[in-house]
């Protein structure tokens, strides 16, 4: 029993040491993961922008009516591959933060989880990483907002938008998902490290901010 305890302590110490020591090999791997995470998202973002869609379609080697589905399929495949790798990284190191892989590589695992169906599983580890300054706190805030939106709850920092119809069936285009204490959201955003107000962020996303209450949303 004594030997087992010693062995477990050695494993724990080894894992902690691995997390604290810069790992250039893992950094290169995560840089590749992050590149793959973003590979098709820029194209998809342009395809969703009416002012850019037509010009982008002319440069793509697929039929216009098939473009969105084609690139979402490719991105989904990339996301699945990335998630398998990132889960293995979590199992070995915990969250691969600034100490382990430097900046901005410390955002790679966050990005993969943010684009996955497993936010709820890894949110606690990402919160801890943010509190320990291994990851920008605003990224944790964005992930928390997304998970709250997925659960049909009010978000905290106003970082998530949707185009879901309202409960009455009305379609109003994109809007910021309902915010808890909307009047105080910009102060919370500032404290979390966001450099734009909720109104400015909505403009950046291509629409005007308007307050929508949770009871008005269909989910």
Written account of the structure:
Pfam families: DUF6624. InterPro entries: DUF6624. The protein is mostly helical and 219 residues long. The protein folds into two domains: 113 residues; 66 residues, no CATH class. Helices cover 59% and strands 2% of the residues. It is built from eleven helices and two strands; from the N terminus they run αααααααααββαα. The chain has a two-stranded antiparallel sheet with strand order 1-2. The longest helix has 27 residues. It is globular.
The N- to C-terminal Cα distance equals 52 Å
How much of the sequence is in beta strands? under 5%
Level of helix content? Answer: 55-70%
> In what order do the strands lie side by side in the largest sheet?
1-2
Strand segment count: 2
Biggest sheet architecture: 2 strands, antiparallel
Total number of distinct structural domains: 2
N-to-C series of helices and strands: HHHHHHHHHEEHH
Structural class: mainly alpha
State mean pLDDT (0 to 100 scale).
92
Report the total helices: 11
Low-pLDDT residue spans = 11-18
Radius of gyration: 20 Å
The outline comes out as: globular
Task: Give a topology summary.
Elements: H1 2-20, H2 24-38, H3 41-47, H4 50-57, H5 67-93, H6 98-101, H7 108-114, H8 119-131, H9 137-150, E1 161-162, E2 175-176, H10 185-192, H11 198-205
Antiparallel strand pairs: 1-2
